[in-house]
Design brief:
The complex is a heterodimer of chains A (336) and B (794).
Chain A: H1 32-36, H2 42-55, H3 60-72, E1 74-77, H4 85-96, H5 101-107, E2 118-121, H6 126-132, E3 140-143, H7 154-167, E4 171-175, H8 178-182, H9 186-200, E5 204-208, H10 211-214, H11 217-229, E6 234-236, H12 248-265, E7 270-272, H13 280-293, E8 306-308, H14 311-324
Parallel strand pairs in A: 1-2, 1-8, 2-3, 3-4, 4-5, 5-6, 6-7
Chain B: H1 3-9, H2 20-28, E1 32-33, E2 35-37, E3 40-42, E4 49-53, E5 60-65, H3 69-88, H4 90-107, H5 109-120, H6 124-152, E6 156-158, E7 161-165, H7 171-184, E8 188-192, H8 199-210, E9 218-220, H9 225-232, E10 239-243, H10 246-256, E11 262-266, E12 271-275, H11 281-292, E13 303-309, H12 310-324, H13 345-360, E14 364-366, E15 382-385, H14 392-395, E16 402-408, H15 411-419, E17 426-430, H16 434-440, E18 448-451, E19 470-471, H17 476-481, E20 484-486, E21 493-494, E22 521-523, E23 526-528, E24 535-539, E25 545-550, H18 554-566, H19 569-572, H20 575-591, H21 593-604, H22 608-629, E26 635-637, E27 643-651, E28 654-658, H23 664-677, E29 681-685, H24 692-702, E30 711-713, H25 718-727, E31 733-736, H26 740-749, E32 756-759, E33 763-764, H27 770-773, H28 776-782, E34 783-791
Parallel strand pairs in B: 1-5, 7-8, 7-10, 8-9, 10-11, 12-13, 12-17, 13-16, 15-16, 17-18, 18-34, 28-29, 28-31, 29-30, 31-32
Antiparallel strand pairs in B: 2-3, 4-5, 6-20, 11-19, 14-15, 21-33, 22-23, 24-25, 26-27, 27-34
Helix pairs in contact in B: 4-6, 5-6, 5-8, 6-7, 11-12, 20-22, 21-22, 22-23, 25-26
The chains are: A alpha/beta (336), B alpha/beta (794).
Chain lengths: 336, 794
C-alpha cells in the first residue's frame, strides 16, 4: 500500500519523466498545527536506518538494475569556484553517456537510453549546459537564491531565479533561510518559499533545507513540511557545503514528511539527498529507504534525485564488475 | 529476471546467504551427534535419536541423541569433577577462558549465524546482527565479572554444578545468557538445549573445547522434555536455570521444592506496547515491527499487546496496516526479509488456532496480502483489532507474529490495562514527553521497560520478569548473584529441635503477666479478634500457661493480605520516611525493652541476659534497616547506545513472612524490617510457639506511625497459615524461616502465581550474628530489579 500512486501494470513499464507524469505540488495554506505536532525520536529513527540495510539486500542482477536506475536519478553536479565552460561541457558529455556503451550492451540495457537525471551548475554556466545538452531530454538545474548560505537580499534571490530560468534552467535548487527555521518563524519561511516557487514559473523547484545547519531532526521535519506547503516540488537535504551532508536519518524524517503531506493534501513531492553520497553502496541504501518508506513510484527520476559528483564513477566500476566478475578501476571509465 | 527487468521493476532479487560451510560441518559429523560430555562427543547410553528439522523447508538437518538419566549421570559427574579445579584456578584465570570464548564466537560468527538460522528458521539478519554479537558481548562482559570476582564478590562462592535448560527461540543467545555467568563465577554446567534447536549448542561446545575450555566445564546433553526433567531432578545439580514456558516453569518449581536447589526461571509474557498521542508515531510503528515481528514474535518479551491512546488509535492502526504491507516473509537465509519460519508445525497450528479463536470472539484480523513461501512453517504478520481485555488473545501468550490492539483513554487507564495480566516481563512506552514516560515506567509491573524503544538487550543490564514471567535476573551484577552462594551462610546447621512443649499442669496454672491482656491479631493497623475466635495456649517451659494467643485461620490471612494491598502507597513512600519510621520503631522498642526481655524469658526460659541481648539486637536490627532504607539504591547502566538504563530496586509487593521459633523477637524483626524498609507490605506469621511476643510488638507498631496495613500480624499454626499464604495469588513473595517442612511446602505451593520464595531449607540462622542474619542478602530478596532503558537524542 505504500505505492500510493497507481503505477498501472507493475514492473514492465516504469513511469518516468515522460510517462504517467505527476501533477506538480499545488501547495497548501500554512497550517501551524501540522508543524507543531511533529515529533521525531532520534534514537528510534537511527535504529530504523541502521537495521534497514540488513532487511533489504539488493544483489547481483537486481543490484545492476537498481544502480542503472540510480544513474538516471543523478543530478550530475559541479559547484566549484574553479568551474569553467569547458569543465561544464565535459560534465554534460558525461551526463549524455554516463556508462560505457560496451557495458550497457553487456548488461542488456543499451536500448534504455540511460542518461543522468540532470546536470546541476551555478547560474553562470546554465546557458553553456543547456547548449551542451541540446538534443537530449536532460534538464539543467541551477543552484540559486544566494547558494549556499542563502543570505542575499530576498529580491536579489528572486531575480537570480528568473535569470536562470531565462537562460534555460528547468530546475531550480533554492536554499532556505536557515534563520527562519532556527527561530521558528514558519510564516517567513513559508512566504520565502512561496515567492521562490512563483519566480520559478514552469521550472521545478527543489528546496534545499541545509539540514546540517538545522541540527535537529525535528527542525528538519518542520522545515520540510513548511516548504511543501509553500509549493516545493522537491525537498533536498543539503548544499554539500554544510559540515554535515545527507544522512539516512535525516532522509527518513524528510520522507515521512513527504508521506504525511501527501496523505493530507494529495500532493506529491520528490526527494533529493545531496552531499556525501559517493558509493554504489550508499545509493542503494537510499533507494531501499525510498522504496520502503514511499514505494516503488518514488524511485523514478521525477521523484528522486541524487545530488552527487563522484558517485557515478563508483557505480560504473560496480557495473563493470558485474559484467566481468573482476574488480574495476576508475581509469577505465571516462571522467566527467 | 534480467538486469533490464530489474531496471524496470526495481524488485528485490533473491539475496541468499550461502550455507555451504554449515552443510560441511554437518557432513563432517555424518549428520548425527552424540552428547558433548567431558570435552568430547560421546554416544548416548541408550538408543533413540531426535531429528532436528529445518523449519523453512521441513527437511531434516541432523539427528541428535535423546539424553537419559545415564547420560546425565555422566555429564553431572564430569561437571562435578571439573568444578573443583575450575573454581580453584581463580577468577583471573577463568576470565582468560571467558575471553577466549568471546573471541571464538566472533571468529566463527557467520558459521553460528547460518546454523542458527537454518535450525531455528529465524532470519539470518537477526542471527548475524543480533544473536551472535550479543552472545560475544555476553562472554566479554562476564569475562569481566570473572576478572573482578575475587575483589568484588569475595563474600560469595560458586554454587557448583548448574543444570541449564534453554528454549528454541534464541538457542545460542540463551546458551550465552546461561553459560557465561555460570562459568565466569566458577560453576560448571550441564546444558540441555531445546529438542528442536540443539545444533548451535553442540557447535559451541565443540569450538569451546577447541579454544581451550577444560573438559567437563561445559557439557551438553541433548534430548526432549524427559531429559530436561531428569536434569531438574538430578541430585548432583546445585541450581537449575530455565528459560521457557510458564507451565514448565511451574513443574520445575514444584519438582525442586525443598531440594535446596537455587532456581532462576525466565518464563512467558504478554508485554504491553503503549503509544501515547505525543509519540513519534512513525517511529512507534517501526517499534511495533521490532516488538512483535522480531523472530516471528516467538520472543518471551515480545510487545504483543498494543495499547494506543484513543485520540490517535484509528490513524495509528491504519498506518500500521500500511506498514505491514511492506513486510517480507521468506527463507531464513534470504537477506531481504523481515520474517522467517515458525519453529515447527505444532507451534504454527497453535498460532493459527489462537488467531481463529480471537476472530470467533469478535476480533478483526488483518494480514497483508504478501507472498508467503509454500512449504515449511510460515505464518503471516497479523494484527488483531476490536479486541477486549477479556478476549483470549489479549490474555494468552500467542508466541507468534500476532499483535493484539486495544485503546486507552488516560495514562492511568494505560497503566491499568498494561498491568492487567498474569505476566510481567517487559513493556514499551512511547511518548516524546519525558515526564510522562518516566512517570509511567515505574508503574508498570515488568522487569524491563523500554522508553521509545523495544527489544533492546545487553549483558550489563539485567533481564527477567515480575509475576508469572518468572524470577531471577540474567545479565549484570544482579544476574551474577544468581550463580553464587553466600559464604557466611555455609556455616548454617540444621535446626536443633526445641524441647517438647511441656504438658500444662492444670487450668489454675494460668500465670499472666500483670493485668490480663488479650492478644489479638493485627490487621490493617487495628487489633482484631481472630475470625474463628479460638485461642492457643502459650506455655512456659515449666508448663504454666502464660498467655493465650489468637488462633488465626485462612480468613484472617485473607483479611491481612487485603489490608496489605490497600497499603500500596508504602511502596512509593519516600525512603527517608521509611527510614524515619524504622528508627522510630527501634526507639519505641527500646523504651519497652525490659517488658520484651521479661516476656522472652517467661516464654522461652531464656536467661535474663540472653533475653536482653535479643531485645537489644532487635533494636539494632531495626536501626540497621532504617539505615539501609535510603541507601539500597539501584544503578545507572551504560549499555552500548546513546542513552542509559536505570536499574531500579522496586519492592516486590505483598510479602508473607513465616518466623522462626528460635529468637522469636529477633527472628521476626530480622525478616519484617528489610521487607518494610524496601517498601513491601508484610503479613507476618510469628513463631507458633512464642507468638505472644508479636502481640507485644504490635503495640510498638501502633505507637511508631507505621501506616495501617504495612505490617500485619496473624498468629496461629504456622504450617496452616503459611500454606494459605503460599497459595494466595495476591501474595507476591513468601519468606519462610521456620524449618524444612514449611520451606518445602512454600516452594511447592508458590506456583499458583509463581511468587518469589526465600526459605531456610531447614537450616537455622544465627540471628545474633549480623554477618548471617542481616544485610544485603536480605535486601536483595526484598526487591526486584526493574531496568528502564532510555535511549535519548534530539
Amino acid at each position: 500500500m505504500s505505492d500510493i500512486i497507481s503505477m498501472g501494470e507493475t514492473g514492465t513499464h516504469a513511469p518516468g519523466l515522460h510517462g504517467n507524469a505527476i501533477v506538480r505540488n499545488a501547495g497548501h495554506a500554512l497550517e501551524l498545527d501540522w508543524i507543531n505536532e511533529i515529533h521525531v525520536n532520534r534514537s528510534a529513527v537511527e535504529r530504523r536506518c541502521a537495521t534497514l540495510g540488513g532487511r533489504r539486500s539488493v544483489k547481483k542482477d537486481a543490484q545492476a538494475g537498481w544502480l542503472l536506475k540510480a544513474i538516471t536519478c543523478i543530478d550530475l553536479t559541479t559547484l566549484s569556484g574553479d568551474d569553467t565552460a569547458a569543465r561544464v561541457r565535459r560534465l554534460c558529455a558525461k551526463a549524455r553517456h554516463p556508462v560505457r556503451q560496451d557495458l550497457l550492451e553487456a548488461l542488456g540495457v543499451a536500448d534504455r537510453q540511460i542518461t543522468t537525471g540532470a546536470v546541476c551548475v551555478y547560474h553562470r554556466f546554465v546557458a553553456e549546459a543547456v547548449a551542451a545538452l541540446d538534443g537530449t531530454f536532460i534538464p539543467v538545474a541551477a543552484v540559486s537564491t544566494g547558494f549556499p548560505a542563502g543570505l542575499s537580499p530576498h529580491d536579489t534571490k528572486l531575480r537570480e531565479i528568473e535569470a536562470s530560468v531565462a537562460d534555460g534552467a528547468s530546475e531550480i535548487d533554492i536554499v532556505v533561510t536557515r534563520e527562519h527555521v532556527l527561530t521558528g518563524n514558519w510564516q517567513a519561511l513559508y512566504d520565502e518559499m512561496r515567492d521562490f516557487r512563483q519566480a520559478c514559473g514552469d521550472a521545478h523547484v527543489k528546496a534545499i533545507l541545509a539540514t546540517g545547519d538545522l541540527r535537529t531532526l525535528r527542525n528538519v521535519g518542520r522545515a520540510s513540511m513548511v516548504c511543501m506547503m509553500a509549493g516545493a516540488d522537491f525537498i533536498k537535504t543539503s548544499t554539500g557545503k554544510e559540515s554535515a551532508n545527507a544522512t539516512l536519518p535525516v532522509s527518513l524524517v524528510m520522507l515521512r514528511m513527504i508521506r504525511h503531506f501527501h496523505e493530507r493534501t494529495g500532493n506529491i513531492v520528490g526527494f533529493k539527498p545531496a552531499g556525501g553520497i559517493s558509493t554504489a553502496k550508499d545509493v542503494l541504501a537510499y533507494q531501499v529507504l525510498m522504496k520502503e518508506e514511499l514505494g516503488r513510484r518514488w524511485l523514478e527520476p521525477d521523484l528522486l534525485r541524487f545530488g552527487a559528483s563522484s558517485l557515478l564513477s563508483d557505480i560504473e566500476r560496480q557495473l563493470e564488475h558485474h559484467v566481468t566478475g573482476r574488480y574495476s578501476a576508475f581509469n577505465r571509465h571516462p571522467m566527467a | 529476471m534480467t538486469v533490464a527487468n530489474f531496471f524496470d521493476s526495481l524488485d528485490y532479487g533473491p539475496a541468499p546467504e550461502s550455507d555451504s560451510n554449515v552443510r560441511a560441518w554437518l557432513a563432517g559429523h555424518d549428520g548425527a551427534f552424540g552428547h558433548f560430555i567431558n570435552g568430547r562427543f560421546v554416544a548416548a547410553k541408550q538408543a533413540g535419536t531426535l531429528a532436528t528439522i529445518e523449519p523453512a523447508t521441513g527437511d531434516k538437518l541432523a539427528d541428535t541423541a535423546l539424553g537419559t538419566v545415564e547420560d546425565l549421570d555422566d555429564a553431572v559427574k564430569a561437571a562435578a569433577k571439573a568444578q573443583t579445579a575450575w573454581a580453584a584456578m581463580g577468577g583471573k584465570a577463568r576470565a582468560r577462558h571467558l575471553y577466549a570464548l568471546a573471541r571464538m564466537v566472533q571468529r566463527h560468527g557467520r558459521l553460528f549465524a547460518v546454523l542458527e538460522a537454518l535450525d531455528n528458521g529465524k532470519p539470518i539478519r537477526e542471527t548475524r546482527d543480533l544473536d551472535v554479537p550479543l552472545v560475544a558481548r555476553h562472554f566479554y562482559h562476564h569475562a569481566g565479572w570473572a576478572e573482578l570476582q575475587d575483589s568484588e564478590l569475595s563474600g560469595f562462592k560458586p554454587i557448583g554444578v548448574i543444570g541449564q535448560i534453554i528454549p528454541w527461540n534464541f538457542p545460542l543467545l540463551m546458551l550465552a545468557w546461561k553459560v557465561a555467568p555460570a562459568l565466569a563465577l566458577g560453576n560448571t554446567v550441564v546444558l540441555k538445549p531445546a529438542e528442536s534447536t540443539p545444533l548451535t549448542a553442540l557447535l559451541f561446545a565443540e569450538l569451546a573445547a577447541r579454544s581451550g575450555l577444560p573438559a567437563g566445564v561445559l557439557n551438553v546433553v541433548t534430548g526432549d522434555g524427559s531429559t530436561g526433567a531428569a536434569l531438574v531432578n538430578h541430585e548432583g545439580v546445585g541450581k537449575i536455570a530455565f528459560t521457557g514456558s510458564t507451565d514448565v516453569g511451574r513443574i520445575i518449581r514444584a519438582d525442586t521444592a525443598g531440594s535446596g536447589k537455587s532456581l532462576t526461571l525466565e518464563l512467558g509474557g504478554k508485554s504491553p506496547f503503549i503509544v501515547f498521542d505525543d509519540a513519534d508515531i512513525e517511529s512507534a510503528i517501526e517499534g511495533v515491527v521490532d516488538a512483535i515481528w522480531f523472530n516471528q514474535g516467538q520472543v518471551c518479551c515480545a510487545g504483543s499487546r498494543l495499547l494506543v491512546q484513543e485520540s490517535i488509535h484509528d490513524r495509528f492502526i491504519a498506518r500500521l496496516k500500511e506498514r505491514m504491507d511492506t513486510l517480507r516473509v521468506g527463507h531464513p537465509l534470504d537477506k531481504a526479509i523481515d520474517l522467517g519460519a515458525i519453529i515447527d508445525p505444532t507451534q504454527l497450528e497453535r498460532i493459527s488456532s489462537l488467531v481463529q479463536k480471537g476472530v470467533e470472539e469478535g476480533a478483526e484480523a488483518y494480514a497483508p496480502a504478501i507472498e508467503i513461501p509454500g512449504n515449511g512453517s510460515f505464518f503471516p504478520p497479523t494484527l488483531l483489532t476490536n479486541v477486549e481485555p477479556a478476549s483470549t488473545v489479549a490474555v494468552e501468550e500467542i508466541f507468534g507474529p500476532v499483535m493484539v490492539a486495544m485503546s486507552f483513554r488516560t495514562p492511568d487507564d494505560a497503566v491499568a490495562l498494561a498491568n492487567n495480566t498474569r505476566y510481567g516481563l517487559a513493556a514499551s512506552v512511547w511518548s516524546e514527553n519525558i515526564s510522562l514516560a518516566l512517570d509511567i515506567a515505574p508503574q508498570l509491573k515488568a522487569g524491563v521497560v523500554w522508553v521509545n524503544a523495544t527489544n533492546l538487550f545487553d549483558a550489563g543490564v539485567g533481564f527477567g520478569g515480575y509475576r508469572e514471567s518468572g524470577f531471577g535476573r540474567e545479565g549484570g551484577l544482579e544476574g551474577a548473584y544468581e550463580y553464587l552462594k553466600l559464604k557466611s551462610w555455609e556455616s548454617r546447621k540444621p535446626y536443633k529441635s526445641l524441647p517438647a512443649v511441656p504438658a500444662v499442669e492444670a487450668t489454675d496454672s494460668f500465670e499472666p503477666m500483670d493485668v490480663d491482656r488479650t492478644a489479638k491479631l493485627y490487621v490493617g493497623g487495628k487489633q482484631v479478634r481472630p475470625d474463628g475466635n479460638y485461642s492457643i495456649n502459650i506455655v512456659s517451659p515449666k508448663g504454666k500457661i502464660i498467655g493465650e494467643m489468637g488462633e488465626g485461620n485462612r480468613k484472617d490471612i485473607r483479611n491481612a493480605v487485603e489490608a496489605a494491598h490497600k497499603a500500596s502507597s508504602w511502596a512509593s513512600a519516600s525512603t527517608h520516611l521509611r527510614a524515619q519510621i524504622l528508627y522510630y520503631l527501634g526507639e519505641n522498642l527500646s523504651a519497652r525493652s525490659h517488658e520484651f526481655a521479661a516476656r522472652l524469658t517467661a516464654m522461652t526460659g531464656a536467661k535474663k541476659s540472653d533475653a536482653e541481648k535479643e531485645v537489644s539486637a532487635s533494636i539494632d536490627r531495626l536501626f540497621t534497616y532504617a539505615a539501609w532504607a535510603d541507601k539500597f539504591d539501584g544503578a545507572v547502566h551504560s549499555p552500548p547506545l546513546r542513552g542509559v538504563a536505570l536499574a531500579m530496586n522496586e519492592p516486590i509487593g505483598v510479602a508473607g513472612v513465616i518466623c522462626p521459633d528460635e529468637a522469636p523477637l529477633l527472628g521476626f524483626v530480622s525478616l519484617v524490617a528489610p521487607l518494610v524498609a524496601m517498601g513491601n507490605r508484610v503479613v507476618a506469621v510469628p513463631s507458633e510457639r512464642y507468638g505472644l511476643i508479636a502481640a507485644d510488638f504490635y503495640q510498638v507498631l501502633d505507637t511508631s506511625d507505621v501506616p495501617s496495613g504495612v505490617v500485619n500480624i496473624v498468629t496461629g499454626h504456622a504450617m496452616e497459615l503459611a500454606t494459605t499464604l503460599a497459595d494466595h495469588d495476591g501474595v507476591d513473595v513468601v519468606w519462610a524461616f521456620a524449618g524444612a517442612d514449611i520451606s518445602k511446602m512454600v516452594e511447592a505451593r508458590s506456583v499458583g502465581n509463581m511468587k518469589r520464595t526465600f526459605v531456610d531449607n531447614g537450616l537455622a540462622t544465627d540471628w545474633l550474628d549480623p554477618a548471617v542474619g542481616e544485610g544485603r542478602h536480605f535486601l536483595r530478596n526484598a526487591v526486584q530489579v526493574k531496568n528502564i532503558w532510555i535511549p535519548y537524542g534530539e
